[in-house]
């Protein structure tokens, strides 16, 4: 139950260049050992079924320059990430991400994916040509616990009792097998979500600001003198403003 700020995702940003997608993880802070103790990842759902199809997976680094050390791009060829039912817990009958498209053992194309650190941010990059289409759902991971791409989704590989709970009122407290990690819901990129996607992020509809008004917000009492020293409200309520010395009459 020790807090690990290097695994606490505060905010995410995505940008698209001509050749690469760039992902910025705004972390709470580097940990005692920087970012080297965990993995940072982005899952891509390119067919919109709630299952990850690709996983960009990189071990944390201390380098402020782009590096490919311990960076991988993985693919789920048999479509069983998430078990028999994507997103929701079930008996794990999948084998996670089994195909390596890029990694330390496969550098046929040496610049597919990268990682670097920028202050308290972790940044990942992946070639656009390796991710199907140009619209998908994506979600982020910071994982210093299980760190096993063959066990995705984790809620299929571990029961609730094995995972533990952060809720002190739960009989499963504290967090156990699924500690030291953070993740997000599925985020739409170049798509208009319906709001019913499995594991999708809640779409917040902004509240329209109130229309501006030139009228002061004043409650007009029966006695003008009770308005006090407020010239705008005094005049708005039909009373006579006697200046700062005499107030409202």
List keywords for this structure.
single chain, 249 residues, mainly beta, 2 domains, seven-stranded antiparallel beta sheet, four-stranded antiparallel beta sheet, 4 helices
Task: Report on the architecture of this protein.
The protein is mainly beta and 249 residues long. The chain has 2 domains: 5-189, no CATH class; 210-249, no CATH class. It contains 4 helices and 11 strands. The chain has helices spanning 154-157, 160-163, 231-236, 243-246; strands at residues 9-16, 20-27, 39-45, 54-59, 71-75, 99-102, 113-118, 121-127, 136-143, 181-183, 187-189. Strands 3, 4, 5, 6, 9, 10 and 11 form a 7-stranded antiparallel beta sheet that branches. A hairpin with an 8-residue loop joins β3 and β4. The chain is elongated and about 85 Å long. The model has no long low-confidence stretch (mean pLDDT 90).
Shape, please?
elongated
Structural class: mainly beta
Termini separation (Å)? 64 Å
Question: Count of helices?
Answer: 4
Tell me, rounded to a whole number, the average pLDDT. 90
Stretches with pLDDT under 50, minimum 5 residues: none
Number of domains: 2
Over the alpha carbons, how many angstroms does the gyration radius reach?
A: 27 Å
**How large is the share of residues in beta strands?**
25-35%
Share of helical residues = under 10%
Number of strands: 11
Topology order in helix (H) and strand (E) letters: EEEEEEEEEHHEEHH
Largest sheet: 7 strands, antiparallel
């Amino acid at each position: 139950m020790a807090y690990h700020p290097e695994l606490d995702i505060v905010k995410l940003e995505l940008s698209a260049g001509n050749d690469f997608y760039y992902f910025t993880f705004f972390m709470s802070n580097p940990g005692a050992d920087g970012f080297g103790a965990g993995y940072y990842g982005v899952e891509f759902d390119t067919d919109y079924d709630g299952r990850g199809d690709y996983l960009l997976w990189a071990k944390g680094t201390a380098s402020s320059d782009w590096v490919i050390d311990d960076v991988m791009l993985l693919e789920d060829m048999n479509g069983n990430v998430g078990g028999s039912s994507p997103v929701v817990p079930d008996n794990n009958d999948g084998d996670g991400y089994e195909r390596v498209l890029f990694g330390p053992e496969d550098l046929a194309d040496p610049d597919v994916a990268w990682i670097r650190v920028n202050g308290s941010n972790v940044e990942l990059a992946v070639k656009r040509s390796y991710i199907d289409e140009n619209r998908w759902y994506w979600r982020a991971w910071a994982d210093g616990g299980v760190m096993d791409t063959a066990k995705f989704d984790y809620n299929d590989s571990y029961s609730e009792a094995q995972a533990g709970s952060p809720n002190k009122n739960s009989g499963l407290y504290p967090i156990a097998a699924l500690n030291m990690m953070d993740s997000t819901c599925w985020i739409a990129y170049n798509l208009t979500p319906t709001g019913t996607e499995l594991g999708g992020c809640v779409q917040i509809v902004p509240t329209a600001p109130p229309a501006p008004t030139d009228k002061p917000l004043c409650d007009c009492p029966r006695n003008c003198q009770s308005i006090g020293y407020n010239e705008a409200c005094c005049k708005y309520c039909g009373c006579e403003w006697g200046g700062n010395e005499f107030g409202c009459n």
